[in-house]
Amino acid sequence: MGYVKEQIRVIKERDPAIKTSAEVFLYPSFYALLFHKWGHWFYKKKHFFIARLISQIGRGLTGIEIHPGAIIGKGLFIDHGMGVVIGETCEIGDNVTIYHGVTLGGTGKDHGKRHPTIGNNVMISTGAKVLGPFKVGDNSRIAANAVVLQEIPEDSTVVGIPGKVVRIQGKRINPCEDLDQVKLPDPVKMEICTLRRTVEGLEEQLKSLEHQMGLSDKELKGMKKAVVLDESPEIYVSPEFCERMQQTEFIRQPNQHRCEDENCENKEACNDYQEKNQ
């Protein structure tokens, strides 16, 4: 009866769709965790075949696969549940919420601890994958379809592929009360915005240099190629440009630039400039 009362409390707390206590007996999570309790008891007694048999029966009835070796704390709720996989050495803390399509799996074929440890009060959203022997800190949230491959600090939100942590400072996350899976920060979008601002700043600096140096289109095209490439070809510039070379360090490899005019009077100055900057 203790298990039934706990499940009634947990499901009514976290699923707004439930209307009566009797509906708890229609939830796949209720039976999946019940089968796991039985299977885990046999697993600890080293009756591995019976434990695995019970686990497979539960998987067939509920669509939720929990290895009998997994250690599960109090108050776990698996909403909908279809496609959830929990590996052998996985450890789950108290008051964790897991949605359908979640995998708590391992990487490689090593023996020993190879599955994640989930802290208390963690929410793992639809389709998320947590792979490897690391810890997900207490009060954390993992967004839908995120792929988590490394340790997650406490009180954090993880989104994206691979998963990136977004710190929630000054606010503890309680997934039992806040089940919003949509309004989560997007670190990929934030990174793109940062890169765009950086590129815009570089373009402004480049325009300023072009204006100061008064370069022709041919010279600009050659200089841009020289800046981008590690091994740029020889670039032919006008004699007037040789004088300006002495006052700028804009070109990465000045020794690869020569004047197109064989009779240029500034060749000596150009050579001096190249020797100083080699």
TrEMBL record:
<dbReference type="InterPro" id="IPR045304">
    <property type="entry name" value="LbH_SAT"/>
</dbReference>
<comment type="pathway">
    <text>Amino-acid biosynthesis; L-cysteine biosynthesis; L-cysteine from L-serine: step 1/2.</text>
</comment>
<dbReference type="Pfam" id="PF00132">
    <property type="entry name" value="Hexapep"/>
</dbReference>
<dbReference type="InterPro" id="IPR042122">
    <property type="entry name" value="Ser_AcTrfase_N_sf"/>
</dbReference>
<dbReference type="GO" id="GO:0006535">
    <property type="term" value="P:cysteine biosynthetic process from serine"/>
</dbReference>
<keyword id="KW-0012">Acyltransferase</keyword>
<dbReference type="InterPro" id="IPR005881">
    <property type="entry name" value="Ser_O-AcTrfase"/>
</dbReference>
<protein>
    <recommendedName>
        <fullName>Serine acetyltransferase</fullName>
        <ecNumber>2.3.1.30</ecNumber>
    </recommendedName>
</protein>
<keyword id="KW-0028">Amino-acid biosynthesis</keyword>
<dbReference type="InterPro" id="IPR011004">
    <property type="entry name" value="Trimer_LpxA-like_sf"/>
</dbReference>
<dbReference type="GO" id="GO:0005737">
    <property type="term" value="C:cytoplasm"/>
</dbReference>
<dbReference type="GO" id="GO:0009001">
    <property type="term" value="F:serine O-acetyltransferase activity"/>
</dbReference>
<dbReference type="InterPro" id="IPR053376">
    <property type="entry name" value="Serine_acetyltransferase"/>
</dbReference>
<comment type="similarity">
    <text>Belongs to the transferase hexapeptide repeat family.</text>
</comment>
<keyword id="KW-0198">Cysteine biosynthesis</keyword>
<keyword id="KW-0808">Transferase</keyword>
<dbReference type="InterPro" id="IPR001451">
    <property type="entry name" value="Hexapep"/>
</dbReference>
